Amino acid sequence: MILSLESIIKAHPFFADMPEKHLEFITSCAKNVAFPERFTIFHEGDPANEFYFIREGLVSVELLVPSRGATTVQTVAEGEILGWSWVSPPYRWHFTARTQQRTRALVFDAKCLRTKCEEDHDLGYEVLSRFVSVISARLDATRLQLLDIYGRHN
Amino acid sequence: MAAIIEPEIVERTLIDPMVPELFRIERLKRETEDTFTLDLVPQEESMKISFLPGQFNMLYVFGVGEVPISISGDPYETSRLEHTTRRVGVVTKAMGRLKPGDSIGIRGPYGSHWPVTEEDGRDFVVIAGGIGLAPLRPVLYHLMAQREKYKKVVLLYGARTPEEILYKRQLERWRGKFDLEVQVTVDRGASGWRGNVGVVTPLVARAPFNPSNTVALVCGPEIMMRFAVMELQKRGVPPERTYISMERNMKCALGYCGHCQWGPTFVCKDGPVFRLDRILPIFGKGEI
User: Fold this and answer.
1) Which domain holds residue A113?
2) Residue B192 touches chain A, beta carbons under 8 Å
3) What is the pLDDT of residue B10?
4) pLDDT, tens digit (0-9, with 9 covering 90-100), for B25-65
5) Nearest CB to B202: which of A72, A101, A137?
6) Does residue A61 sit within a domain?
7) How far, in Å, CA of A76 to CA of A41, rounded?
């Protein structure tokens, strides 16, 4: 069964309870993409003008660490949102995103969405409040990682 | 295949619950750099092993001391015991130096168990962190042995690094099964690791189970269990169907000595497995 962009977006919890008019606009900013394995979706330092909803596959979020090379700090999997550097200046990616497997996603034109959010603050609130939840969950997870809970001292 | 042991058999009255039975080490298998599994057989050949998933034994290294360790083997196996532990203290370090053929004393099994025999027809989500997979492994053996009785079975497992994943070969075998969803994540990836990186708790949000019909079993560091419980509650799994396994300083294993008192409970006697709604007021409280 081929699902329309609209139905995929509506079914995702990230967009749950979003007013119809905002969903229509967001859908107009989206398109389907597919990436092969080991493909760099975006690169640290490049302009951040998109975000992604991973439909299938696995993406590693990497940071280049001198003497260690590209180091995966987190993976983003099916059903999750990838990328929030588009939300705040200087709108550049802080990390590199690379596929670990063949990956299908929806990509959203965040530059267009950002401009629209500045014009329509209701839309801006709807979008940013959802991103705050994603960022908060990632912050919790990162704090747990920092605690090294499986370490020998535990 | 033998039927799973019944609680009344396990709860038999021991002649003297403080006197250990003699067991012989058949094999000591290194799982990770600091974790090992003991395969133990009773010196009295006629003895039948029986326990319920989640229970623990007191293991006595002669001349060194006694420690509580969860049983990590197959509950259908009646001729041997398996215990996985980590070298962290004097006793477990001495235990790790024992060799096949050496003797060890065992008292048990003690404590409460995971609710596997009471929850037919449910989805099961099993969430383990680090060595917390060991007390949950008997549940997985049981769920796989009685697979037709349950709906979805999901294992979410988090380890520190790929090298510190317990029971790697078994996880790979289980991952190959169509009727068991296995998701593994590590806190720190390494070159060559192509799986999930991050803590185990976010896996709950995307795991394939029906929250309205799910039993959740959680074992790992206490802080990991707290975050796992939060994620389960977000998904709508009620505390009445969420179970956790607690760890405290257990000494007698019979509720006499009071070392493992946790609020109004004794972890050795009332736990280690607790239904979440029954301990919610004290779960995560630092001063208890």
Assistant:
1) 5-147
2) no
3) 47
4) 999 999 999 999 999 999 988 888 899 999 999 999 999 99
5) A137
6) yes
7) 12
Residue B259 and residue B173: Cα distance in Å, rounded?
Answer: 40
Q: What fold, for B123-245?
A: Rossmann fold (3.40.50)
DSSP B280: T
Long-range contacts of range B95-98, CB-CB < 8 Å, 24 or more positions apart?
Answer: B95/B38, B95/B59, B95/B61, B95/B67, B96/B28, B96/B36, B98/B25, B98/B28, B98/B38, B98/B61
φ and ψ at B131, to 5 degrees?
-75, -5
CB-based contact, B158 to chain A, within 8 Å:
yes
A154 within domain boundaries: no
Q: Which sequence spans correspond to the domains of chain B?
A: 21-110, 123-245
User: Quick one: closest CA in B to A12, which residue?
Assistant: B206
Question: Is residue A135 less than 8 Å (CB to CB) from chain B?
Answer: no
Of A74, A79, A150, the CB nearest to B160: A150
- For the segment A11-60, what is each residue's pLDDT rounded down to a tens digit? 888 888 999 999 999 999 999 999 999 999 999 999 999 999 999 999 99
Q: Residue B272, preceding bond cis, omega within 30 degrees? A: yes
Inter-residue contact A90 to A47 (CB < 8 Å): no
Domain spanning B21-110 has what CATH number?
2.40.30.10
Gyration radius from chain A CA atoms: 16
Q: What are phi and psi of B67, to 5 degrees?
A: -135, 150
- Total number of domains constituting chain A: 1
In chain B, residues with a C-beta closer than 8 Å to the C-beta of A137 are: 202, 205
Q: What is the DSSP letter of B76?
A: T
Q: What is the CATH number of the domain that holds A124?
A: 2.60.120.10
Residues of A in contact with B34 (CB under 8 A): 152
Determine whether the interchain pair B199/A141 forms a contact, defined as Cβ–Cβ distance below 8 Å: yes
ipTM of the complex: 0.88
Average of per-residue pLDDT across B108-126: 90
B85 touches chain A (CB under 8 A): no
pLDDT digits (tens, 9 = 90+) for A72-103: 999 999 999 999 999 999 999 999 999 999 99
pLDDT of the residue at A153: 56
User: Residue by residue, what is the 3-state secondary structure of A32-97?
Assistant: EEEECCCCEEECCCCECCEEEEEEECEEEEEEEECCCEEEEEEEEECCCEECCCCCCCCCECCCEE
Q: Each residue of B134-145: pLDDT tens digit?
A: 999 999 999 999
Give the pTM: 0.91
